[in-house]
Specification:
Nucleotidyltransferase, domain 5; 2 domains; binds zinc ion; five-stranded mixed sheet; binds 5'-O-[(R)-(carboxyoxy)(hydroxy)phosphoryl]adenosine
Length: 336
């Protein structure tokens, strides 16, 4: 089954063609970092406009690179939410237009569902497993029972880990997007130079909180330290916290396999820390290839395929009029 996936929830215009949920034939991503960089963050209106311009070009390129035509596509899949409403609408309209014209089914996908299945492109996954999802908008731990069945075990009470990377990068004058910039700067720094800590969240051993760390970084900057030292010390405490909570959850729920997903899973320091912890505690740790960690449409095509495969006769795959974009879409809308 050939699936064309579309992702436009934030500042990446992405289209991919995937066969059977695992075999990626093409994965085209037009990043908009150049326009948002000057504002230090994503400007929603500019993102929507750029998606409109990019979409026809990227869609043609994804089909071309896959060596297929639109008529070969059996299923369309598109991110319905969460994300920027105007940006989501561009992808949704494109997907509806193509599916409608070709009389093919269209599977609406939750963006995080895409991130959670992305590791399947590189690994055979064991179910159930524990997924640490660390992106710009979310930081959560999930019990994943199957390709369409997942339950949240813990989440952040305030900022997401990626958001903390972006905000700290801005404070350190390192540019946008912040994660890769902080990781680069940290390579030259001493991670013990600034004694950052993250306090436990009241009432939960698994939930996260990263907002206090921003204030600590702001305070530390007043003493004129080396930027690289602050970056390295910040990255150390974020990695240690993510690793500690994940290992704790694995012990509590008896998981043997851990998947790290989302944009921050591209971070080498986090991967190394999680690998070390895995060796120590007898856990298998896997993550998607970097291109499938950050936003992409291959993961959306895969998630759409798994949803559709559950019940191909479900009328919702043909309910184009009833399908809308939802900025705050809960993951429970897809998990069973
Ligand atoms: O998953 P993603 O592409 O988009 C969301 O769904 O949010 O994640 C983007 C986030 C950004 O905050 C970005 O700074 C962070 O992932 N990120 C990283 C790295 N690459 C991207 N954070 C740390 N280290 C990286 N190498
Ligand atoms: Zn994402």
């Amino acid at each position: 089954m050939l699936v064309l996936g579309i992702e436009t929830s934030c500042d990446e215009t992405a289209v991919a063609v995937v066969r059977g949920g695992v075999n990626v034939l093409s994965n085209v991503i037009a990043s908009q970092h150049d326009i948002h960089q000057q504002y230090g963050g994503v400007v929603p209106e500019l993102a929507s406009r750029r998606h409109v311009e990019n979409m026809p070009v990227i869609a043609r390129e994804a089909l071309g690179r896959a060596g297929v035509t639109l008529n070969d596509i059996d299923l369309f899949a598109v991110t319905r939410g969460p994300g920027l409403l105007g940006a989501l609408l561009v992808g949704l309209s494109a997907a509806k237009g193509m599916a409608w014209a070709l009389k093919k089914p269209l599977a609406p996908v939750h963006h995080l569902h895409g991130h959670i299945v992305a590791a399947r492109f590189n690994h055979e996954l064991v179910y159930p497993h524990l997924c640490l999802l660390v992106s710009g908008g979310h930081t959560s731990l999930y019990k994943v029972d199957g390709p369409v069945t997942m339950t949240e075990l813990a989440s952040t009470r305030d900022d997401a880990a990626g958001e903390a990377f972006d905000k700290v990068a801005k404070m350190l004058g390192l540019g946008f997007p912040g994660g890769p910039a902080v990781e680069r700067a940290a390579k030259e720094g001493d991670e013990k130079a600034v004694p950052f800590t993250i306090p436990r969240v009241k009432g939960s051993a698994l939930d996260f909180s990263f907002s206090g760390l921003k204030t600590a970084v702001r305070e530390a900057m007043k003493k004129n330290p080396r930027v690289a030292d602050v970056a390295a010390s910040f990255q150390r405490v974020v990695t240690n916290t993510l690793v500690a909570h994940t290992v704790r959850a694995a012990a509590q729920f008896d998981f043997k396999e851990i998947v790290i997903a989302g944009g921050v899973a591209a971070n080498g320091h986090l991967r190394a820390g999680m690998t070390r912890a895995g060796e120590e505690h007898g856990l298998r740790v896997v993550w998607p290839a970097p291109v499938y960690c950050t936003d992409n449409a291959a993961m959306i095509a895969a998630a759409g395929y798994f949803l559709y495969r559950e019940n191909p006769d479900d009328p919702r795959w043909r309910d184009f009029n009833g399908l809308d974009a939802v900025a705050n879409l809960p993951l429970e809308t897809i998990a069973r």
